[in-house]
Amino acid sequence: MPKVLISGRGGSGKSTVVSLLAQRLKRNGNKILVVDSDESNLCLNKILGINKSKDTLMGNLGGKKLIRDKLMEVVQKGESNLNIFDEMSLDNLSEEYVSWNDNLGFLEIGKIEHSMEGCACPMGALARDFFNHIKVNKDEWILIDTEAGIEHFGRGLIEGVDFIVTIVDPSEDAILLANKAFDLSLEDNKTFGLILNKVDRASEKIIKNKLNPNISIIGTIDYSPDIAMLNLKGDSIDSILVNGLNDVINYIN
Ligand SMILES: Nc1ncnc2c1ncn2[C@@H]1O[C@H](COP(=O)(O)OP(=O)(O)OP(=O)(O)O)[C@@H](O)[C@H]1O
Ligand SMILES: [Mg+2]
């Protein structure tokens, strides 16, 4: 079953769509791990309606300095993969860094914690290694929320991923980034689909005219004041039902 990476410009709705898909998959009887690979934003667990675990993956493995040192060793050998994990499955991940709510798990790769702590490359390398080694069985999904933009393509996060979804909200930047993400996904032979978010019929038409016509639009989510209000309050969007999510899931699968 798929490991799906969700990308898009800042604020386009990546974390919202990850949460909507995760809740829908859970209702459909799947086991899902949501991975937060955004090193800045802090509230994906609230949108999902799940507690955080005790630690991030990076914290559990000894912290950023240790991972950075390992990464430096790897780079000095002329390699780029950390290779610190053996093959893993959803069943043998520690609850020290994964919190579970029935069949929905939540894991944070690592967060920026201190001023002047250095770049986020160790988080990227750790995430890449994790996705390269985690295996998903039938009826299991991994949904990966990412930081804004396309840095995760450069960092190689997509290496172990099966499907890229880019979210486009009504903005020129979102459209340009989606066209770029499509090209980058093709470079790596990854399947690609696009979800329009926060649209109405007028903005949907303009976006479609500007997108690369070879891109598959796999879903459309209208602007919803309820989603925006729940986010403002810091509440879960568990109660929000969006039409067409099962079609998105069937397409990806
Ligand atoms: N369909 C929608 N209708 C109304 N508001 C929405 C919709 N989707 C997302 N939002 C709102 O837009 C804002 C940004 O959404 P979200 O945090 O999911 O974006 P993001 O792409 O993850 O942002 P970031 O790049 O900062 O990680 C939030 O306030 C969210 O509630
Ligand atoms: Mg986000």
UniProtKB/TrEMBL annotation:
What range(s) does the CobQ/CobB/MinD/ParA nucleotide binding domain occupy?
A: 4-235
Name any one Pfam family assigned in the record. Answer: CbiA
GO molecular function terms here?
Answer: ATP binding; ATP hydrolysis activity
Gene Ontology biological process terms from the UniProt entry: negative regulation of cell division
Cite the Gene3D superfamilies for this sequence. P-loop containing nucleotide triphosphate hydrolases
What domain of life does the native source organism fall in?
Archaea
Task: Name a single GO cellular component.
Answer: cytosol
Q: InterPro entries per the record?
A: CobQ/CobB/MinD/ParA_Nub-bd_dom, CooC, P-loop_NTPase, ParA/MinD_ATPase
Which PANTHER family does the annotation name? AAA+ ATPASE DOMAIN-CONTAINING PROTEIN, SEPTUM SITE-DETERMINING PROTEIN MIND HOMOLOG, CHLOROPLASTIC-RELATED
Q: What is this protein called?
A: CO dehydrogenase maturation factor
